Amino acid sequence: MPVPFLMRCDCHVHIVGSIQDYPQVPDRTYLAGVASVAALKELGATRGIDRFVIVQPSFYGVDNAMTLDALEEFDGHGRGVAVIDPAKTSPDTLAMFHDCGVRGLRINLYSPIKPPGGDTLEAAFAANAAAARQHGWHVQVIAPLPNLLPHADLLAKSSVPVVIDHYGLYGDKRPDSAEGRRLLDLAGLPHVWVKLSAPYRHDRGPLNMVPDREWIAALLAAAPDRCVWGSDWPHPPPHDAQKGADREAPYRALSYQTLVDEFLAALRSEESAGRVMGENAARLYGF
């Protein structure tokens, strides 16, 4: 049965246009197929989800045209997380992004594609944070836990909110491990948020849709008001399925509805569901 609350938000999706209209970077590791706003709206409607946060994918580099066009199509029901080269993006461009619905900047240290602005958090974070600060945005970081934890102090001292992608990409680490405790300590800081998204990016296989209940409980205990949910639609292919720039790799064959249902089943209460999918998302993204 649907959980009763006013708003449900999917806080992590990607929108992809045709390559003729929206070119992908030459050094991409696969050719991404179309994933449209219309298709996503239809899927979300089956579970009462009508707000979406579009995250700029790595294969678009710093060309945010698809993300901005999708935000226009969502007509107020979307927010965006952009990717920029801080050294080259003007204040006027950032202001335009804000007007379109962008509320964060992403640093990607997970994709095989080299991120703009440097391939370490030290190189990229300060400049992205300075740009984000101009409009009250956050900086979203995607990095496997072994790459994230060496920079925990950097994130802990951030003057802007930090959003950690995909449960912190904990891999096979447990919450009570040394690494797990460090991630939970980071998540417990008042400016750090966590996306409870993409359960298939960990140790249970590339098609796993059942979230780890121990990790959910631990993260919600650390940050009950700073966890949000995302589907990671259209579920990008695993890295080992990405065979080259001119070869389209199919998205993972997953059920959007099952992802939602399994996530709700893993929560302890309707109150938690309302907070994670509604209230927390509304605060972070300004819905």
List keywords for this structure.
8-stranded parallel sheet, 287 residues, TIM Barrel, 10 helices, alpha/beta, globular, single chain
Structural description of this entry:
With 287 residues, this protein is of the alpha/beta class. Helix content is 34%, strand content 14%. It is globular and about 45 Å long. The mean pLDDT is 93.
Any chance you could write out the topology, listing elements then pairs?
Blueprint: E1 9-13, H1 37-45, E2 51-55, H2 65-74, E3 78-82, H3 91-100, E4 102-108, H4 121-133, E5 138-142, H5 145-148, H6 152-156, E6 162-164, H7 178-187, E7 192-197, H8 213-222, E8 227-230, H9 256-266, H10 270-285
Parallel strand pairs: 1-2, 2-3, 3-4, 4-5, 5-6, 6-7, 7-8
Number of helices: 10
Strand content: 5-15%
CATH topology tier name: TIM Barrel
Mean pLDDT: 93
Q: What is the overall silhouette? A: globular
Radius of gyration: 17 Å
Oligomeric form: single chain
CATH superfamily: Metal-dependent hydrolases
**CATH class category label:** Alpha Beta
Class from helix and strand fractions:
alpha/beta
Largest sheet: 8 strands, parallel
The beta-strand count equals 8
Low-confidence stretches: none
**Order of strands across the biggest sheet?**
1-2-3-4-5-6-7-8
Number of domains: 1
The CATH architecture can be given as Alpha-Beta Barrel
- State the order of secondary-structure elements, H for helix, E for strand: EHEHEHEHEHHEHEHEHH
- Helix proportion range: 25-40%
Spatial separation of the terminal alpha carbons: 25 Å
